[in-house]
Hints:
This protein is mainly alpha-helical and 137 residues long. The protein has a single domain (2-136), classed as Zincin-like, CATH 3.30.2010. It contains 6 helices and 3 strands; from the N terminus they run ααβββαααα. A hairpin with a 3-residue loop joins strand 2 and strand 3. Helix 1 runs antiparallel to helix 2 and helix 1 (2-17) packs across helix 5 (99-113).
Amino acid sequence: MEKAxxxxxxxxxxxxxxxxxxxxxxxxxxxxxxxxVRFNTPDxxxxxxxxxxxxxxxxxxxxxxxxxxxxxxxxxxxxxKLAQTLIHxxxxxxxxxxxxxxxxxxLLLFRLSRSPLVYKxxxxxxxxxxxxxxxxx
Length: 137
């Protein structure tokens, strides 16, 4: 998980270097949150009750604003996929409750860092963001 955190921080840092003043503070907040967040993982062979079949991770902003709960599905994927998930969930933890807003920040960081998205999250189509993806793959 620490390697995924490092990759996520590198993406956020590169995005900060290429950001404009209007989004620099937002990206900096995500970067700092990635560095300080704790991870909660299920016991071996189990999963959290909030982990639906396609859920990689979730946060409980008001219960514990410094923890990302990692579902079993995220733990069996690639480190790069986990790093992208950490960016998305960290966007929630800085106050972006809406999935579309967190997905926009996720895309912004990947675009500004010039890093390719590892996967398309399930919200991109729902939020009308799938048309923004041509340059990310």
